[in-house]
Each structure stands twice: as structure tokens, then as C-alpha cells.
């Protein structure tokens, strides 16, 4: 038989061609690998920085969520803030309930431990975080019913397993229940406060409480004769600042810290100051309504007034101020356009929701009944 011959022009790959192809492949691969490694490292670094930021933000948000409702459900003799320190805070609030008939509680959870839904009993006190103070030594009742406001503590403790002297763990505890970890990897440089506190000075301007005055502890009974000094300062706290810092260790650049700073207003702080609630409060004074930048083309109206006498003296039962607005000649004030908690000596509020017309404003003080004072008329402003 006749053997088949290869088609004309068909031949194999020469050694030189193989070497050239191999060199090109190695060159392309050598250029591509560092590029992909750089991209992978960049993604990892970005993810690490984001994790550090989210960790700090989660710690801050968790505390902020609870602090905003501090004071809800407390009874007359129960303090709002129990402990105010650089690295620990304890307060009372009706945060969680297993009773569907509890109208004041923020969260309803039928499975929650009943021991963490009411105020603690003095027979089983706990040691406040980072202190030698035991709380409570008194029971709190509304009539014959125990207060539904539980005691909530947050504090940071050094993470001994981290090998760093500035890395902490954030804890949370309700009543005498076991503490649980909220967040790890919280960085607090030496001498830097995790919590700082603001209270109004003699002119009503919020000012920081110096760290050398901390920690502050409230006496067991709010409004008692010994509720003075540092104890009274806890009653005057209006804002709590939190500085949370998360850590990411970059293998190339080293440690990277992401900061989250926030200010939490204690919106119920004015209410806890009440010692009695009888006659309707006296009205605020000196109310004014000033158009800005001028009366010809106002873009806002600034309202200002001074506190009712019954806020800090007299019955001491003013809880809030309500701002009303109506067209001149209208017999009905309608619903208030704003409500401010009572605390400073003077108040200011901007009304930016302006429409054409001749508008008049009035300020009313409200106590814990709630009963309203007579209105303090702030005057009228014409909006062209």
C-alpha cells in the first residue's frame, strides 16, 4: 500500500518559536500577578478600614439608641443618670417589657427575662461598673407597683488578650443580668475619655464637665435633701458625647484608626427634675419673634424666651415648652409647631417654615400633669 504524505507546507513548532512564546507568557504573567496582588490588597485594606469604622459606629449607635430614651418610665424618686464616668455610664429607663399592657416601654419582648424589665430590688444590688459603689439601696415604686424602669450600664474594659494597652471591649448590662459584649477592638488612647458630659452653666449655655470631676454618682433617692453637689450634677446633664475608635491593622501601613464621634441629647432630662406637680405653671417670659435677615424679606423667624419661674423655683415641675403659631385674627392656635424640653434658663428656636401672611407666635410652659401655663405672646411677623 502507498503511504499517505503530509500536506505541503504543514510543519511543527520550532524550538525558537516555543522559547519566544514561553518568554512572552512569563512576561505577561509577571506583569499581571503584581497587578492582581495590588488589587487584592487594596480591596482587603478598604474592607479592613470599613470594618474598623463600622465597628466603632456600631458601638456608638448601640449606646446612643438606649441613651436617647433614658428617663422613660422612671418614678418620682428614681434617678435618671446613676453613674457618669469617663469610661462608664449607668442610667434608668423603661427600655424593654414582657407586659403588653406596659404603655411606656420602648420595646415589647414576651421572651425577655422578667428580672430585666423592672427596677432592681435593694435586696440584690450590683456594683456599678469600674467603681466600688453598690446600687440600689432603695426600692422605687409608683404607688404599690415597682417602677418598670430598669438599670442599664455601658462600660469599656481593657482587652488583655489584644496585647495593646489602648484596646478595649465595650460591655452592656441590664439590672443584675450577666454582662454581654457589644464590641471589641475599641481604641481609647491614654487620657482620652470615652464618655464626656455637657450641662448648662449659669447662663444656660452647655459646657463640658471636667474629667477631674468624674465619675459622678447620684444618691439613691432623687430629690432627697442630700441630692446636691455631684449628685445634682448628674440631674443637670443634658448631652452625652461618645468617642468610639475602631482599629484595623494594615500589613503595610501599620495600624489605622477610624473615629466616630457623636452627641446624644437626653431628651427626658428635664422631666426627671420634677419634685411635685400641682397648679398650672407660670408662663415663660420675655418672648420675642424676630424676622431674619430683615422684616422685608425674612427667611426665618427666631423665637426667644426665658424660662418659667416654676422651672427652677416654685413647684419646679415644668417639663417642656411648646411653641404655637397662627394667622393674626385666627381664634385657634391649633397644634404646637415645636416642643423643647425644659433645662436651660433661656431658649431660642428658628421657624423656617414661612408662608405669606401676618403670623403671631406664643410660648406655653407645660408641667407633668400635663397642665399648660398662660401663653406668653411673642408678637407678630408679616411674611410678604
Describe the protein's topology.
Layout: H1 15-67, E1 81-84, E2 88-93, E3 96-97, E4 107-108, E5 126-127, E6 134-135, E7 141-142, E8 145-146, E9 150-158, E10 167-174, E11 180-187, E12 195-200, E13 206-208, E14 216-217, H2 229-236, E15 239-250, E16 254-265, E17 285-292, E18 300-306, H3 309-312, E19 318-327, E20 338-341, E21 346-351, E22 357-367, E23 376-383
Parallel strand pairs: 3-4
Antiparallel strand pairs: 1-2, 1-14, 2-9, 5-6, 7-8, 9-10, 10-11, 12-13, 12-15, 15-16, 17-18, 18-21, 19-20, 19-22, 22-23
The helix fraction, in percent, is: 10-25%
Rounded to an integer in angstroms, the radius of gyration calculated over CA atoms is 32 Å
The number of helices is: 3
- Quickly count the domains: 2
User: Main sheet?
Assistant: 6 strands, antiparallel
Strand order of the largest sheet: 11-10-9-2-1-14
- Average per-residue pLDDT, rounded, comes to 85
Low-confidence stretches: none
Task: Give the H and E element order.
Answer: HEEEEEEEEEEEEEEHEEEEHEEEEE
Query: How much β-strand is present in the residues?
Result: 35-45%
Give the overall shape: extended
Distance between the termini: 113 Å
Given helix and strand content, the structural type is alpha+beta
Number of strands: 23
Amino acid at each position: 500500500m502507498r503511504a499517505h504524505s503530509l500536506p505541503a507546507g504543514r510543519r511543527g513548532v520550532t524550538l525558537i518559536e516555543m522559547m519566544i512564546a514561553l518568554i512572552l507568557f512569563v512576561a505577561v504573567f509577571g506583569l499581571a500577578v503584581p497587578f492582581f496582588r495590588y488589587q487584592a490588597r487594596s480591596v482587603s485594606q478598604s474592607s479592613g478600614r470599613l470594618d474598623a469604622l463600622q465597628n466603632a459606629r456600631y458601638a456608638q449607635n448601640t449606646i446612643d439608641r438606649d441613651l436617647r430614651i433614658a428617663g422613660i418610665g422612671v418614678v418620682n424618686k428614681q434617678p435618671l443618670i446613676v453613674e457618669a464616668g469617663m469610661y462608664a455610664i449607668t442610667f434608668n429607663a423603661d427600655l424593654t417589657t414582657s407586659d403588653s399592657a406596659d404603655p411606656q416601654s420602648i420595646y415589647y419582648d414576651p421572651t425577655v427575662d422578667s428580672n430585666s424589665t423592672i427596677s432592681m430590688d435593694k435586696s440584690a444590688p450590683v456594683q456599678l461598673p469600674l467603681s466600688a459603689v453598690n446600687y440600689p439601696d432603695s426600692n422605687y415604686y409608683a404607688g404599690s407597683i415597682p417602677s418598670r424602669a430598669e438599670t442599664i450600664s455601658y462600660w469599656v474594659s481593657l482587652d488583655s488578650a489584644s496585647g495593646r494597652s489602648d484596646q478595649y471591649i465595650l460591655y452592656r448590662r441590664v439590672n443584675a443580668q450577666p454582662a454581654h459584649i457589644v464590641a471589641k477592638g475599641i481604641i481609647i488612647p491614654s487620657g482620652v475619655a470615652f464618655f464626656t458630659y455637657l450641662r448648662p452653666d449659669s447662663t444656660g449655655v452647655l459646657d463640658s464637665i471636667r474629667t477631674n470631676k468624674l465619675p459622678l454618682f447620684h444618691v439613691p433617692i432623687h430629690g432627697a435633701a442630700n441630692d446636691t453637689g455631684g449628685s445634682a450634677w448628674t440631674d443637670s446633664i443634658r448631652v452625652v458625647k461618645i468617642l468610639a475608635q475602631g482599629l484595623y491593622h494594615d500589613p503595610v501601613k501599620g495600624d489605622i484608626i477610624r473615629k466616630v464621634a457623636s452627641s446624644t441629647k437626653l431628651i427626658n432630662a428635664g422631666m426627671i427634675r420634677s419634685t411635685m406637680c400641682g397648679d398650672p405653671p407660670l408662663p415663660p417670659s420675655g418672648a420675642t419673634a424676630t424676622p431674619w435677615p430683615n422684616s422685608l424679606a425674612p427667611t426665618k423667624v427666631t423665637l426667644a424666651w426665658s424660662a418659667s419661674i416654676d422651672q427652677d423655683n416654685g413647684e419646679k415641675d415644668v417639663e417642656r415648652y411648646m411653641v404655637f403659631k397662627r394667622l393674626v385674627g385666627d381664634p385657634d392656635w391649633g397644634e404646637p409647631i415645636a416642643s423643647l424640653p425644659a433645662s436651660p434658663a433661656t431658649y431660642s428656636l428658628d421657624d423656617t417654615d414661612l408662608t405669606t401672611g401676618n403670623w403671631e407666635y406664643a410660648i406655653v410652659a407645660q408641667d407633668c400633669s400635663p397642665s399648660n401655663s398662660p401663653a406668653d405672646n411673642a408678637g407678630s411677623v408679616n411674611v410678604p
